[in-house]
From TrEMBL:
Species in which this protein is naturally found: Nocardioides humilatus
Domain Helicase ATP-binding residues, every copy: 14-304
Reaction catalysed by this enzyme: ATP + H2O = ADP + phosphate + H(+)
Its EC number(s): 5.6.2.3
Keywords: ATP-binding, Helicase, Hydrolase, Nucleotide-binding
Entry cofactors: [4Fe-4S] cluster
Domain of life (superkingdom): Bacteria
Xref: PROSITE patterns: HELICASE_ATP_BIND_2 (PS51193)
Record-given protein name: ATP-dependent helicase DinG
Biological processes annotated in GO: nucleobase-containing compound metabolic process
UniProt similarity note: Belongs to the helicase family. DinG subfamily.
């Protein structure tokens, strides 16, 4: 990056930081310079920026200065809201008028995230494809749907976005009555409300904007599935990049169950039935055969499809294909028929899913879920891996910057890099620019090569065997950069590993673990976030602590909605909050509210998890170490995310307690521990309790 550009970047970042009331951070400066360099040189960059670095500005400022459109993709709605509602408005106001900065930005989501004015004004189709009115057809739900309709009309008048997240509180089922999927949409030119359409207006604004904020799923649909959703862009910055493979996998996962097939058949019937032919009836018959085959099959992953299930899927596929062909051809002179369009879209989607499942290809994983009180058993299919698609369809075409607080697992970037299609052998050295205000630049890669076990693990893991279209196997050089954290974890935090406890068993928490939890919570006088591997374990621990420590308030996930639980946890420091995965990654509670984080066990994936077990076996068969590449990597990422709940500001202090002795007794423990922040570590329970007592003021 030329010197003038470098100075201009520094000046713009300084202006932004000052306007937003922040302080200069060497890690943020190093990150912004590296991002700008990656954009200008078209090199992929993985940059780990610890909590408190200010990574949003670290990529937003160089993105605004880049000479072509930049896409920002986030995994969570919380970060998307932070960017759009807080960071970008303040940032663009601060740097507006600065030479070389384009401050236009837009938000872009999938079509189902916007209210559909055709559904709002004409109604949603019922199972027979008829457009129906909420009052008559939806009973108690009608009132809520009417409220959503009124809100949508108000959004039209006010020039609002019509986005789901801005709507009055609702359920997913209620929202589906006022929205459509991409397959169900009539299209702008055919819809009488196309000029007012919220989704079309969002696309238009994105096409006029320099910065487009979207999510991992929409990015996957646009780049990997080849469905144009995002206007042409040069660079994509993927924030929360540790979640990218999971989100891409989720976007490429399909489900199928018998009642869904029946519903699609009923919606299609009025458009396809004739005096001599009933293709919709054939699909309904296929649904009954599928129901019977699912009832006979055992839940879990299928190595090979049972004959009865294979026949049923082939029957559904063929019936859906015939039904899709039976819809009347559209005539340009005819008025658009929403019921026809949406019924045909449902059948086409059904055919694609059944066809994929019937093929049961080597690069897919197919399994059957167990039914619940709320949901019937479902067939699910997901890609065995997504790195080849990411490499061929995204990395080969765009410059990609990936950032997160947790990209280095086991002490290096290799695990995350391989999972997204970057080969460890393609990594190139980082070229630091200049010193930060005369002081030495921060040590940017100290963790990356320091842990001997991590290096051995990385060496034992084979690089991804990537099968891609011609030309996509060209080298994809990338840089790995750790800009550190402004927090002093060694002074602010303690990692306590309960080595004396028995190894966790399959039966949940035992008496020793429950007593350990209670004694730690008592020493901390509340202020505890408990992260558990199962809902059963969280509820058992909460009940035990309530009984033993009735003077403290102990909440369990499920007692109320998560925002309400988080509010109670923040308002009363003598409160404990116990829960599962939703708390591991999605809770931000700085200050004295949280001084103890308890992790009940190393969060390995369940042995019967269909997708994880298939990926682990595939890694073994390719010559790698499936346990380390899949199970240990999964656990390391969650451990890092869970431990990261503790220190959120410079003034936070506390202790992370891991009740699983394998973190220090097992060979893989060093790999997991190297993924955590550099906390001061002890295995002495007395030391842990005294430290918590001093923090709570009871010692």
């Amino acid at each position: 990056m030329p010197g003038d550009d470098h100075d201009a970047l520094r000046a713009t970042l300084a202006t932004a930081v000052e306007a937003l009331g922040g302080a200069e951070r060497s890690g943020q400066i190093a990150m912004a310079e590296a991002v700008a360099e990656a954009m200008s040189e078209h090199e992929h960059l993985l940059v780990q920026a610890g909590t408190g670095t200010g990574k949003s500005l670290g990529y937003l400022v160089p993105a605004l200065r880049h000479n072509k459109r930049v896409v920002i993709a986030t995994a969570t709605l919380a970060l998307q809201h932070q960017l759009v509602e807080r960071d970008l408005p303040r940032l663009t106001k601060a740097v507006s008028g600065v030479a070389g900065v384009d401050t236009t930005y837009a938000v872009l989501k999938g079509r189902s995230n916007y209210a559909c004015l055709h559904r709002v004004r004409e109604g949603a189709p019922d199972d027979q494809g008829e457009l129906i009115q909420a009052e008559a057809a939806l009973g108690a739900m009608g009132k809520k749907v009417l409220e959503l309709r009124e809100w949508a009309e108000g959004e039209v008048e006010a020039g609002g976005s019509g986005e789901k997240d801005a709507a009055p509180r609702h359920t997913d089922k209620e929202w589906r009555q006022v929205s459509v999927s991409a397959r169900e949409c009539l299209g702008r030119t055919k819809c009488q409300f196309g000029e007012e359409c919220f989704a079309e207006r969002a696309k238009e604004k994105a096409a006029r904007s320099h910065l487009v904020v979207t999510n991992h799923s929409l990015l996957a649909i646009d780049a990997i599935e080849g469905i144009p959703m995002i206007p042409e862009y040069d660079v994509v910055v993927i924030d929360e990049a540790h979640e990218l493979t999971a989100r891409v996998t989720q976007a490429a996962t399909d489900e199928l169950w018998a009642s869904e097939v029946e519903r699609a058949a009923r919606r299609a019937a009025r458009h396809t039935r004739t005096d001599t032919d009933d293709p919709a009836g054939d699909l309904e018959d296929a649904a009954n055969v599928l129901r019977g085959a699912i009832a006979e099959a055992q839940p879990g992953r299928f190595e090979a499809l049972p004959d009865e299930l294979a026949d049923a899927l082939a029957l559904v596929r063929d019936a859906a294909r015939a039904l899709a062909s039976a819809f009347p051809k559209a005539d340009a002179k005819d008025e658009p028929d929403a019921g026809l369009t949406q019924a045909k879209g449902a059948v086409q989607e059904l055919f694609a899913t059944a066809d994929r499942m019937a093929a049961n290809g080597d690069y897919d994983v197919l399994w059957l879920t167990e039914g619940t009180d709320r949901l019937p058993p479902r067939l699910c299919i997901a890609p065995l891996q997504v790195w080849s698609q990411l490499r061929a369809k995204l990395l080969a075409d765009k410059t990609v910057v990936m950032t997160s607080a947790t990209l280095m697992l086991g002490g290096d970037f290799n695990s995350i890099a391989s999972s997204v299609g970057l080969k460890p052998s393609e990594r190139v050295p980082h070229r630091p620019l200049v010193e930060v205000r005369g002081a030495p630049a921060p040590s940017l890669e100290t963790k990356d090569t320091s842990d001997a076990l991590a290096r051995r693990v990385a060496a034992s893991a084979s690089e991804p065997r990537i099968e891609t279209p011609e030309g996509a196997n060209d080298a994809e050089p990338w840089i790995g950069l750790d800009v550190g954290s402004p927090f002093d974890y060694g002074k602010q935090s303690i990692l306590y590993i309960a080595r004396h406890l028995p190894q966790p068993g399959r039966d949940g928490l035992g008496p020793a673990q429950l007593e350990e939890i209670t004694e730690l919570v008592d020493a901390a006088n509340g202020r505890t976030l408990g992260l558990f591997s199962s809902r059963r374990a969280a509820e058992a621990a909460a009940e035990h602590v309530r009984t033993k420590l009735p003077h403290l308030t102990t909440l369990a996930q499920g007692d109320a909605q998560l925002p309400e639980l988080a509010r109670q946890f923040v308002e009363d420091p003598h409160t404990n909050l116990f829960g599962t995965l939703g708390l591991w990654q999605g809770l931000d509670v700085p200050g004295d509210t949280c001084q103890l984080v308890i992790i009940d066990r190393i969060p390995f994936p369940r042995p019967d998890d269909p997708l994880m077990s298939a990926r682990q076996r595939a890694a073994d068969q390719s010559g790698g170490n499936g346990f380390m590449q899949v199970a240990a990597t999964h656990a390391a990422l969650l451990l890092a995310q869970g431990a990261g709940r503790l220190i959120r500001t410079h003034s936070d202090k506390g202790l992370v307690a891991v009740l699983d002795p394998r973190l220090v007794t097992a060979r893989y423990g060093s790999f997991l521990k190297a993924s955590l922040p550099p906390m001061w570590t002890t295995t002495d329970p007395a030391v842990a309790r005294k430290a918590l007592g001093r923090l709570s003021g009871s010692a």
